[in-house]
């Protein structure tokens, strides 16, 4: 079965510092991979998705993620954190475009002024 | 265009009661999925419906049921509520069943069971 692990339930960075949120997946075949963001009291919003077209995926709000098959990883990065980036971030996976989307446990990002 | 809308936004029930949650997808979207998000955890898949047919079901007991209407809106029903059913229930829509994981979420219905 598909699963996703996110290392670090909570990450704190200073404003302007690099953001790195980690995600590893378990899959026998390259899956579809996603990062979603959830702001307080809101639903989830898609940040970016990997569908095998390119290993480096650019998303909204300056975020990007790199698919590394050898490491079964899909880590999310942003060069410079803004206060508005404080939110919960979820890595997600689906085996095919028809399958259910499986979410990881989430990483809460705090940005310190 | 309006996004995914869910109602009610908040509700409180007691153990043993029944609850119905409602979801209207984005106009033109024919697939609706339901997720349960317990505080501090990631969303857990409950159901997916497409064209009024159930396309997938997560690991939830039979107390959970859902349906999709001809206008593609959906209802999630939970019977015999337990304390552990307290959670944020999220509805997500996509244009087709082949959504490629690109889901559009509503803000959720927060259920508290006392």
Descriptors for this entry?
heterodimer; A: about 110 residues; mainly beta; six-stranded mixed beta sheet; about 50% strand; globular; B: about 110 residues; four-stranded antiparallel beta sheet
What does this structure look like?
The complex is a heterodimer of chains A (113) and B (114). The mean pLDDT of chain A is 91. Helices cover 0% and strands 51% of the residues of chain A. Chain A contains no helices and twelve strands. In chain A, strands 2, 5, 6, 10, 11 and 12 form a six-stranded mixed beta sheet that branches. Chain A has strands at residues 3-5, 10-14, 19-21, 24-26, 32-38, 44-50, 56-58, 64-68, 73-78, 87-94, 102-103, 107-112. Chain A has 113 residues and is mostly beta strands. With 114 residues, chain B is mostly beta strands. In chain B, strands 2, 4, 5, 6, 9, 10 and 11 form a seven-stranded mixed beta sheet that branches. In chain B, a hairpin with a 6-residue loop joins strand 4 and strand 5. Chain B is globular. Classes of the chains: A mainly beta (113), B mainly beta (114). The interface between A and B is medium-sized, with 24 and 27 residues.
How does the SSE layout of this entry go?
The complex is a heterodimer of chains A (113) and B (114).
Chain A: E1 3-5, E2 10-14, E3 19-21, E4 24-26, E5 32-38, E6 44-50, E7 56-58, E8 64-68, E9 73-78, E10 87-94, E11 102-103, E12 107-112
Parallel strand pairs in A: 2-12
Antiparallel strand pairs in A: 1-4, 3-9, 5-6, 5-10, 7-8, 8-9, 10-11, 10-12
Chain B: E1 5-7, E2 10-13, E3 19-24, E4 31-37, E5 44-50, E6 53-57, E7 64-68, E8 74-78, E9 87-94, E10 104-105, E11 109-113
Parallel strand pairs in B: 2-11
Antiparallel strand pairs in B: 1-3, 3-8, 4-5, 4-9, 5-6, 7-8, 9-10, 9-11
């Amino acid at each position: 079965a598909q699963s996703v692990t996110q290392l670090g339930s909570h990450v704190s960075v200073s404003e302007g510092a690099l953001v790195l949120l980690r995600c590893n997946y378990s899959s026998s075949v390259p899956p579809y991979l996603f990062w979603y963001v959830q702001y307080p009291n809101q639903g989830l919003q898609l940040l970016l998705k990997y569908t095998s077209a390119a290993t480096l995926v650019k998303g909204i709000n300056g975020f990007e993620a790199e698919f590394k098959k050898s490491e079964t990883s899909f880590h999310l990065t942003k060069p410079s954190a803004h206060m508005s980036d404080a939110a919960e971030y979820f890595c997600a996976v689906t085996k095919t475009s028809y399958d259910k989307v499986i979410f990881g446990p989430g990483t809460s990002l705090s940005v310190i002024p | 265009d309006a996004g995914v809308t869910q109602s009610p936004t908040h509700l409180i029930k007691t153990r043993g009661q029944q609850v119905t949650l409602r979801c209207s997808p984005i106009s033109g979207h024919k697939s609706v999925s339901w997720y349960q998000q317990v505080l501090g955890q990631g969303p857990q898949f409950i159901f997916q419906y497409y064209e009024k047919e159930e396309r997938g079901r997560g690991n939830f007991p039979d107390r959970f049921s859902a349906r999709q209407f001809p206008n593609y809106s959906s209802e999630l029903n939970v019977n015999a509520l337990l304390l552990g059913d307290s959670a944020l229930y999220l509805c997500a829509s996509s244009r087709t069943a082949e959504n490629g994981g690109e889901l559009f979420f509503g803000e959720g219905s927060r259920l508290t069971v006392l």
